[in-house]
Amino acid sequence: MSEVKTKTPISNSRIGDSAPRPDGIPKVKGTFAFSSDLWHEKMLWGGTLRSPYPAARINKLDITEALLIDGVHTVLTHSDVPGEAVYGLEHADQPVMAAEVVRYEGEPVAIVAADHPEIVRRALAAIKVEYEEMVPLTDPEIAESVGHIHPDGNVFRKINIRHGDQEIQGDIQVEGFYEVGMQDQAFLGPESGLAVPGEDGGVDLYVSTQWLHADQRQVASCLGLKEEDVRITLAGVGGAFGAREDLSLHVHLCMLAMRTNRPVKMIYSREESFHGHVHRHPAKMWYRHHADREGNLLRVEARVLLDGGAYASSSGAVIANAACFAAGPYRIPNANIEGIVVRTNNPPCGAMRGFGAVQTCMGHEAQMDKLAAVLNVDPVEIRLKNALKTGDQLLTGQIITGTAPVAEVIRTCAEHVPSYQKSSDLMSLPGGAGRTADPEHISRGEAIAVGFKNLMFSEGFDDFSSAVCHLEDGVATITCACAEVGQGFVTLAQQITREILGVEEVILAPAATETVGSAGSTSASRQTWMSGGAVQKACEEVRLKLLQRVTEEHEIGIDDLVLAEGQVLSLNGDFSISIDVATENPLEARVEYRHAPTFPLDENGQGDAHVSFAFAAHRAVVDVDPELGLVKVVELITSQDVGRLLNPVQAIGQLEGGAAQGVGLAVMEEVLVAEGNIRNASFTDYLIPTALDMPPVEVAAIIEQPEPGAPFGAKGIGEPPSISSTAAVVAAIREATNLELPRVPVRLTDIVSVEEPS
Amino acid sequence: MSNDFYTLNVNGEDHQVADSWAGESLLWVLRERLGFPGAKNACEEGECGSCSVRIGEEVVCSCLVLAGSATEQEITTIEGLSAEGELSDVQQAFIDAGAVQCGFCTPGLLVTIDDLLEKNENPDDLTVREAISGNLCRCTGYGRILEAVQIAAASRRGEKRE
User: Fold this and answer.
1) Taking Cα atoms as reference points, which of A110, A43, A49, A113 lies closest to residue A80?
2) Fewer Cβ atoms within 10 A, N terminus or C terminus of chain A?
3) B98 with A6: Cβ contact below 8 A
């Protein structure tokens, strides 16, 4: 990584530079205000009573005793919800608070506002709820065929992709069942926020989120207010990874603040956070790949079943991705893919980094390895032979018109000479110091995987972002509602503005619903393109206005002028005026930016549903002690298609961080759900990779092929690192153990088989 | 509730804590009563390290320390690392190396690393990994953090790391 520039002066913070984060200084000083750091005069604390059962009827709900506790200001239940009783990202099916029934463990039943969190705790304990337990529906396989557990039914969405010849048989066929466990986003900053009642009957909400305007629409609906009376401002976000795309405490906080007429703050505990947000869908997948004897893929059959849990969230879009990308970035002329996502009484699932493509990547890559084994060819070779390229068709019939350097990411990743050395330190062995493996027994495995997904929203969604550029006295102020969740959009917004306007000082106004239109969601690897595009467009309009002004005032042809280093200059060098002076009268542009339109899938799952695609490959090296079942991921090597590199250091951060979440899913992370109950809702029991678990990530290649239509040619880069990393690690463990390992995370007991007594 | 108060010495200054509940953690008192929100609340059960502060010479999870037990000791929080508003070498290295993304783990990591480098100016990779293994980070995968530690360590040794 020594080639990555780590220090760049501000004046060199344009496109392509490793510009430093504008929020870096407050974040290292501890003064950056996260949503859990908010404080307000006369502030109360809020809390939520949650169902202990995954399925139950509420026969009685008695808040009398809780209300009598000194310091309790209000206790509210479903009957106090002023507007719509339900909300949801795609379909409003999730109650603000449960009325007659609860459908998952942790579903909110009542909320409290009190003087101190300890009083909140006591009040929650004093609320009497009489539950009549029901048998929870926990098996997604039977959800379609049993009685409905919700008026909207048990199937969120079914997709059938029928592409090409539905009958053709390959001389070579490989088949497999695969399973992916439920992963948690495990952002570090817990759900938290502060609601302040407005004097006008509205409410101000400061909250960590991924999508301010979608929150505003849903909150206003549930509060029975006009959207403009719910003013939402982004509070500092401690990571997101998909888990903040849905509402959590938003409506509750506003209800408490409006009822008590006091500011109310709420912070979820870690345990509550596990119950308070959606997870990555667990998947069960069946595949059959058909190929000819040369290893050319002829047809893929697959069935993908996702468990959506109790409420819809974004399940419909997740299954569309899982189905569309089910067979991986390969040229496949014929396919039959069935995707289905169902409702159960398990924890609700929705968005997480990779969004449907993570699960299927684990399946299609295992299939490619099986195919290579049957044909006795190199796994890299069979991937290269079938690699998608520009001009090829997807399973949906869509022709890829943008860049698709699949062969490049595979080849560079495969050819990279890794730098790892076999360490003899006990801490480097599988199991670490605590359960040290015997070095003599360690088996090393190495494998490659490749994956892809769509960038931005698909299937005809009106996907846009908005931005305002205000240039005054040579200082640019950018207003955009893009949620900065850690990914570094704030850095890019400054780089783009400096690049176009040639000014040094770029102020970023707070992201809020009041000052600017929607930026869309910080998800789907879309903000570099979408809000980056909006900022670019706003700056270019201001630039044009500035040039026109200078042209008119100084009688110079507009084509003879450039902006650079804070000056408007004529190309022949005869004229210059500082932008400070030229913008004493401010200039402003307010824009919306859209990507090229997409279209819905038809009844055969065919259509131009997506805008653009990004590809990545990972190669994993693992050490396994097969007797103890211990795994150490020794090294990851990656290559990624980025379109154009806008900020090298930030890009490396995405590649490393995304890979870490992939390693977690491969070997340690799973929300364990038993009969609908989460068994490990804590960081003691739900383990995420530490610095000792995480191997070095070597970047073999960052492939820069500018994407047509993308601002600066740049593709989003956040999700691909999480897609093929899991598949590569599990494949490497298969190499080391010769076990089939059809399930992630790979557990100790998957490696060490306990033989049944005969 | 009681009317008694106790005194905590935070970043070299005494602060009186009045009307506190008996069970309040040092993390809670620092954040909510004394106005030091730098230590963070990611798990509040001693697993994530985001609440790390130094008491005397020892780095602790402030969520696991009863505030009332931390009297008569010197408590150093992230706010105490940048004396006079100047960034410390480790803080600057975090920015330069790209070790900050969402930033929620950052204060705890900085307190831990500052302590590590005071005790060991030349830690190798595995030593650093072990030292920070009690600090969870979900954004970075630790690569840039490890780089930042080596940048700061090199500058303490008077070397420049390329």
Assistant:
1) A110
2) C
3) yes
Residue A294's alpha-carbon distances to A406, A447, B80, in angstroms, are: 20, 22, 66
Residue B74 touches chain A, beta carbons under 8 Å? no
Q: CATH number for the B83-156 domain, one of 1.20.1300.10, 1.10.10.920, 3.30.70.330, 1.10.150.120? A: 1.10.150.120
Angle between helical axes of A357-375 and A315-324 (0-180°, round to 10): 20
Facing residue for B95 by CB, picked from A25, A37, A691: A25
3-state secondary structure of A418: coil
- pLDDT for residue A358: 98
Report the CATH architecture of A279-458+602-751. 2-Layer Sandwich (3.30)
Is A224 or A11 the better-scoring residue by pLDDT?
A224
CB contact under 8 A, B47 and A683: yes
Rounded-to-integer distance, Cα A690 and Cα A525, Å: 25
Query: Rounded to whole angstroms, how far apart are CA atoms A216 and A210?
Result: 12
The residue ranges of DSSP E strands in A555-606, in sequence order, are 561-564, 567-570, 576-578, 587-594
Residue-wise pLDDT for A717-734, tens only, equals 999 999 999 999 999 999
CATH class label, A10-32+464-594: alpha beta
B 12-31: CB under 8 A from A: 21, 23, 31
The answer to whether the CB atoms of A270 and B44 lie below 8 A apart is yes
Contact B141 A7 (CB under 8 A): no
Chain B residues inside the 8 Å CB shell of A692: 129-130, 133
Q: Superfamily assignment of A35-135+190-237+244-276 in CATH?
A: Aldehyde oxidase/xanthine dehydrogenase, a/b hammerhead (3.90.1170.50)
For an interface test with A, the pick among B81, B91, B138, B146 (most A C-beta atoms closer than 10 Å) comes out as B138
pLDDT at position A369, please? 98
Q: What are A657-670's pLDDT values in tens digits?
A: 999 999 999 999 99
Pick the CATH number of B5-79 from 3.30.565.10, 3.10.20.30, 3.90.550.10, 3.40.30.10: 3.10.20.30
Identify all chain A residues contacting B104, using CB atoms and an 8 Å cutoff: 34, 187-189, 238-239
Contacts of B95 in chain A (CB under 8 A): 20-21, 24-25, 28
User: Which residues of chain A make contact with B87, given a CB cutoff of 8 A?
Assistant: 25, 28-29
On whether ipTM exceeds 0.95, the answer is yes
Domain boundaries of chain A, sorted by first residue: 10-32+464-594, 35-135+190-237+244-276, 279-458+602-751
Cβ contact A692–B130 (<8 Å): yes
A116 lies within 8 A of chain B by CB: yes
- What does the pLDDT look like over B74-95, one tens digit per residue? 999 999 998 778 999 999 999 9
Q: Report the Cα A322 to chain-centroid distance in Å.
A: 14
Residue of A nearest to B138 (CA): A187
Mean pLDDT within A479-497: 98
Strands (E), A198-327: 203-207, 230-234, 264-267, 279-280, 283-291, 297-307
From B36, B44, B104, residue closest to A34, measured CB to CB:
B104
Beta bridge partners of B52: B61
- Strands of A30-148 (E only): list them: 44-50, 56-62, 72-77, 86-87, 94-95, 101-102, 108-114, 128-133
- Mean pLDDT in chain A? 96
Taking the CA of residue B99 and the nearest CA in chain A, the distance in Å comes to 8
